[in-house]
Design brief:
584 residues; alpha+beta; Arc Repressor Mutant, subunit A; Rossmann fold; 6-stranded mixed β-sheet; 26 helices; 14 strands; 56% helix; 12% strand; globular
């Protein structure tokens, strides 16, 4: 291991290599997380270290509340001596290490460590935190001429759901692997692209009532197979095949599982084979990411729960589809969609309230359909506690925190989702939105650009980048990005709205009204909050509130973030704005 610096401040020496804090040459007992907190501050002495950066550094694979960081800083202040002001709090941002820090030469650091090693006692949390394995389950190749296209992604999703129940495995979500439905020529290249330690790959053939599954687990680190096996069973025994694969993977990865963890690994969400196959078909449609496929997914999930009314996971997926359609609808608002989403979430929870997917769906229903911010936050926190690496849980948590005005904490939650699935345009767009709400416009632009690198004509990414460029004062960049976009209907509609906003920002009232009229003609229903934004930017406050009231009457889902939406800052001093916030 390459030696790392030893830092000296006052009577203290902080040895990053030996992970030792010395006070007047004597070891000071520190837990690992306290040591990490101190090292992060000392290594950047004199500058502000943002809370989000500290949380990512100290708890890289886990979402924790800011309170954990606050407790660590409080403990360090007490340990270093409260009479000396070592750590300064920067309100709403982070902390700064104030003491003068110098680096000590390696030889001197080694001597100090050796001199005190016999008396070093580090209070472990215990540093037995097991190594988390990052892995990906690729879609199984479907062989033969039978109607089995849905089985490849479906079986992968089932294994991802099972393996994702273990905190010891950080498994890439289904959204990350669907692009590999055609088998990659180089599995190791796929592993590198997905940034994982191991890849599960295989094929499935169905003939009449029998299936043959061939599977192998490849170590990216050692570039060698860890395990391979072939299963030849009746299709009705697919659950036993999934059990066996999940357990073999855990054994091949040398994971030490408790009894509870093994039960989670082989947890079956239904025993009804017809319901299960319909669920697989729904998952296949859900991962097409088109409006027609999303509608078709609701049909399959609805049929699945008819065959097995207690199928909690299918209820959760159905509710999630309804929420997506409700939030991203192009037509007029639909109260029936909100009711369907709520009913599905409630049924999922009634059958299995320990299901992270059910809690995440419930959180999104409460936030976007009901404007119940407090209960949405509680449900999303339960979801993350159940499955810390779930992109659905962290997505729900991020938006729930932002709706409470805790935008930077929301950014931290969505960063966790981004780490789990860095190649998702949707996650990058959502993170860009929250960064824009936090007025961190350069970071937001980078997220939208990442989304566009993955999906060049992603309408929400194009819109988000245009908006954030306006907020950065780059009107020309916004107009150029509009010219580069395609002429698809959704993009044309966003383009007209952005042009209206750009004209409003530059004081061109006539141009803004013309572009707004074009946007209105390009869609069956123009979202009232977008119109309100344009009038607020034009300085026509009364008209802006007319449209905000209309958005409120329509139950516009994005009103939950009204208090942090930067284009409406000019309305914040108006009593009508505070009355709106009270009602939402």
């Amino acid at each position: 291991m390459n030696p790392q610096p030893t830092y000296q401040f006052g009577r203290f020496h902080l040895d990053a290599t030996e992970r030792v804090l010395l006070a007047d040459g004597k070891a000071v007992a520190l837990s690992p997380k306290l040591f990490d907190t101190l090292l992060a501050l000392v290594a950047h002495a004199g500058r502000i270290v943002e809370k989000e950066e500290l949380l990512r550094t100290i708890w890289p694979d886990t979402f924790v509340e800011e309170n954990s960081l606050n407790k660590n800083v409080h403990a360090l202040r007490r340990l270093l001596g409260e009479t000396e002001s070592f750590i300064e709090t920067i309100p709403k941002r982070g902390y700064r290490f104030m003491a003068e820090v110098s680096e000590v030469g390696t030889s001197q650091a080694t001597m100090l460590a050796q001199r005190t090693r016999t008396s070093i006692v580090i209070e472990e949390e215990i540093d037995d935190e097991p190594q988390v394995v990052r892995m990906a389950v690729l879609p199984f190749r479907t062989l033969g001429d039978s109607d089995g296209e849905h089985l490849g992604v479906g079986l992968a999703d089932a294994l991802i759901t099972r393996l994702g129940n273990l905190s010891l495995i950080h498994v890439r979500p289904t959204a990350a692997i669907v692009k590999y439905d055609a088998p990659p020529a180089d599995l190791l290249a796929a592993a590198r692209e997905l940034q994982v330690d191991a890849v599960l790959d295989g094929s499935i053939r169905r003939v009449a009532d029998r299936i043959r599954v061939t599977v192998q687990l490849i170590s990216a680190r050692h570039e060698a197979p860890l395990w391979a096996e072939k299963f030849d069973e009746r299709f009705t025994d697919i659950f036993a095949v999934e059990d066996a694969i999940s357990e073999r993977v855990a054994d091949a990865l040398l994971l030490k599982l408790t009894g509870d963890q093994r039960r989670l690994l082989t947890k079956r969400y239904t025993e009804n084979i017809a319901a299960y196959e319909l669920y697989l078909r729904g998952i296949h449609q859900l991962n097409q990411y088109t409006a027609p496929a999303l509608q078709q997914a609701t049909v399959f999930f609805s049929e699945a729960v008819k065959h097995d009314p207690s199928y909690a996971l299918a209820h959760a997926r159905l509710g999630g589809c309804y929420v997506l359609i409700y939030v991203y609808r192009n037509g007029a608002p639909s109260a029936s969609l909100a009711q369907l989403a709520q009913a599905a979430a409630e049924r999922a929870l009634s059958f299995d309230d320990s299901l992270a997917e059910a809690q995440a769906t419930d959180a999104q229903v409460k936030l976007f359909c009901q404007w119940n911010k407090a209960d949405a936050l509680a449900a999303s926190q339960r979801a993350v506690a159940l499955k810390p690496h779930s992109i659905f849980a962290n997505f729900a948590l991020g938006w729930s925190l932002a709706a409470q005005g805790r935008v930077n904490e929301g950014v931290t939650a969505l960063r966790q989702a981004q780490q789990t699935e860095p190649h998702s345009p949707g996650i990058n767009v959502a993170l860009g939105h929250l960064l824009a709400f936090a007025q961190r416009y350069d970071e937001a632009a980078a997220c939208y650009q990442q989304a566009l690198a993955l999906a060049p004509q992603h309408s929400e990414a194009l819109r988000g980048l245009g908006l954030v460029n306006l907020l950065r004062g780059r009107v020309e960049d916004t107009l150029q990005s509009l010219n580069d976009a395609t002429n698809e209907t959704a993009v044309r509609h966003h383009r007209s709205l952005l042009r209206a906003l750009a004209c409003a920002r530059t004081g061109d009232s006539a141009g803004a009204r013309q572009a707004l009229a074009e946007a209105n003609a390009q869609s069956e229903h123009i979202r009232s909050i977008n119109v309100a934004t344009i009038y607020a930017t034009l300085g026509e406050t009364d008209e802006a509130f007319v449209w905000l009231e209309r958005a409120c009457a329509e139950r516009e889902p994005m009103l939950v973030t009204l208090g942090v939406y930067p284009f409406l800052d000019s309305l914040h001093d108006d009593p009508r704005f505070h009355e709106l916030l009270r009602r939402i």
